[in-house]
Fold:
Amino acid sequence: MSPLRLSRLVALVAAFAVGTGLYGVYHYVHNYWDYRGFAPPHDASFVRVHGTTGRFYVRSAALGGRRQPVDFYLPPGYLSHPHRRYPVMYLLHGFPGRPGAFISTVRMGVVEDELVALHRARPMILVMPFGSTGSFTDEEWANGVRRNDKWETFVSHDVVAAVDLRFRTIRSESARVLAGLSEGGYGAVNIGIHHPREFGTIESWSGYMRADDLGSIFGHRRPLLQYNTPLDTLSAAAPTLRRLHTSFWLYTGKDDSLRGQNILFSNELAALRIPHQFYLVRGGHNWALWRGNAARAYLAASRRLRLHAA
Structure:
């Protein structure tokens, strides 16, 4: 082989190795972003009927007409029972985040399939809106100071209306659960307090109870910060929450720096006689905690729905 051909061959092999290496890095990063180091989710062998995933888009007036993606998971049996109506569990992601993590990382679809197959829980439609303009754009699930940044209204009005129109839902606050992890847990509590006639059960997984003083969202305006701080708004909302039988279910890790806010909020719920359950669980503020408590959270929502139906 001539030196010229040899040099070309070496260059080609080197380029292939670099390309393969870059692809490997991309593939690793992509998989980690999807699964956070866990194995891809799959149902246990005893599951015979599986739920189905999908996505639709909501053109939201609260967001200035923006077309926003909403992921969903239809429960096992939904397609084969065309006359049955279902409760809905709305799931709010954290920051940085995306709605697909509830299915790929937290395994909520697998949790539902298995609990329903074991007759331990009620089937629900899972709805996971995207609460931002990008995975690394912080919106706090709140109605901010900027025009057309009304993320609270997007969830409580636009998404709920679109879901009730598109799917066979039970159209009552008693059949709607609003849950979230980390920032989504804060969002669930904040929105739930503001809109008790939309959501009957509120779940916070490692959420916080004081609004972060973010100028891009709250403009450093004290009244707006107070309005979006559950520790400041719960007392005034308590009579309505009690009358509508709104309940709260919360947990946080024992090693989580936010646990103090959760303890204070739980104590206030107790003092105001608002139905709730609060747990300190082993762990910090991470995916292992949320994944490990996913079945517990689903079961809690299902039991609350049964109480409403009783």
Observations:
- The chain has a mean pLDDT of 91.
